[in-house]
Specification:
With 212 residues, the protein is of the alpha+beta class. Helices cover 25% and strands 14% of the residues. The longest helix has 19 residues. The termini are close together.
């Protein structure tokens, strides 16, 4: 699988091929700009008018543990699981348009605010190990870590590899750029996922991906 580890030059060339004559990427209006939470109007990129205060926070997926995805599979997906042990699962997100994106989830149903101390300590070690594994990819300049939790009640951390040497993508605008980048080939996603999974197995034990 290492044959498809992308270099910074290869990633940049693939993105550049999707730009117009002025070197601009098209706005992917079907992605984040199409969400009601996107803050700008597409035509003018003005900040949208502020909405009235909601009556209450909307329910999230999995508020009832019996209806959460973890009540069934426990998070395992052979096509996406790049690493797992008896308590945690790391899933490769092949929809994202970055060198690598990984979702880390506990198998047991917890949110961040009720995570037991033992799992919280393990989560810290996993975030450190995952970040190091992501940054060991040749096409990654930095690992970013995000936790939102507005859509799902089951704790899920997103760890993303910011493309190396593409300095416009630094910091919090990375996700805004990501929506407009060209898709990453599946074989590249899987090669990068296998690389990250192997580093985690070396450092923490557990099981790597089935496709490596």
């Amino acid at each position: 699988m290492t044959d498809h580890l992308e270099t910074p030059e290869e990633f940049h060339a693939r993105v550049a091929a999707a730009t117009d004559d002025e070197g601009r990427l098209p706005v992917a209006v079907s992605e984040m700009p199409g969400w009601d939470i996107f803050p700008f109007e597409i035509d003018s990129l003005r900040v949208k008018p502020l909405h009235p205060l909601a009556d209450a926070e909307p329910p999230r997926r999995g508020e009832d543990p019996g209806e959460c995805w973890c009540a069934g599979s426990g998070g395992d997906d052979p096509e996406r699981t790049l690493w797992s042990n008896e308590r945690w699962v790391a899933l490769l997100d092949t929809r994202m348009r970055l060198p690598v994106a990984v979702t880390l989830l506990p198998r047991a149903h917890h949110d961040l605010t009720d995570l037991p101390d033992e799992l919280a300590g393990e989560m810290g070690r996993l975030v450190v190990a995952l970040s190091a594994a992501i940054e060991s990819l040749p096409g990654v300049g930095r690992a970013q870590v995000a936790k939102y939790g507005d859509g799902g009640a089951h704790l899920h951390l997103l760890l993303m590899g910011r493309p190396a040497r593409m300095l416009q993508l630094r910091g919090s605008p990375l996700l805004d750029w990501e929506e407009n980048l060209p898709a990453v080939p599946l074989e590249v996603h899987r090669a990068h996922g296998a690389h990250v999974g192997a580093r985690l197995v070396e450092r923490l034990g557990g099981t790597g991906p089935s496709w490596s």
